[in-house]
Every structure is written in structure tokens, then in C-alpha cells.
Amino acid sequence: MKEEICSRCEGKMRKAMIKLDLPRGSVEIEGYKCTKCGDKIFTHEQTELGEKTTMAKGLWGPNLWLERKVTTIGNVPAIIIPKDIAMHLHIKSGKKIKIGMMDDEIIIRPERTRY
Q: Is 3 a domain residue?
């Protein structure tokens, strides 16, 4: 990658090891970080390597399943969303989510912010 300029502040992008916090842990991946505002980007190759690394370490991927017990709030079944997943998906108290079923699975999605 030739020397790039930050799209946010026009600072210089420099190679850096960038920490990614994922639901099952953290990993550092090489990317580019702005020397002025701290914005981070990855090339396509860096993204692919990061995906392989996180999957190999069991930190991310299609097999990321966590087990939780069903509890009761009032007389309604409820589950607690793990803190790491809630942080990763920006789910906070009072924020709307979408919940539905697909075959025999429950799907929970954070409501997307519209611009």
C-alpha cells in the first residue's frame, strides 16, 4: 500500500498492529492507523489474514456459539446477552432489536441506524 491519507482528517496512515476485541477474546492484526486522528483501516489481504487468524484461534467465525440458561422475568422466558457480544453489536439498554425464527433457530439482530 502506498502512503495513504486518512479520509477523515487528511493525516498520514502508518502501518500498525491493531488490537481487535471480539466476543471470545482479542487479537492483534497488522493494519494502518492515522497518525493524527487514530482512525484504523485494513487492506483486503490484511482482512483475510485477520479472519483466518481469528477463526484458527476460535475467536470468531460460524462456529461461535455460547451457551446460556433461560431465566424468567415476570412470567416470560428471557435470556441474557453476553456482555462481549452486546458491546460488539452496540446493544445497550433501551435499544431496539429484531428477534425472529429461522427453521429451529432464534435470530436476534440489533436495529440498524439509518443515515
A: yes
**Alpha-carbon gap, residue 85 to 9, rounded angstroms:** 30
Contact yes or no for 22/12 (Cβ under 8 A): no
DSSP label at 59? Answer: S
Could you list the residue range(s) of the whole structural domain that residue 78 is in? 71-110
Please indicate, yes or no, whether the overall pTM of this predicted structure exceeds 0.90: no
pLDDT digits (tens, 9 = 90+) for 81-92: 888 778 778 888
Query: What pLDDT was estimated at residue 25?
Result: 82
CA dist., res. 49 & res. 30, Å (int): 9
Structural domains counted in the chain: 2
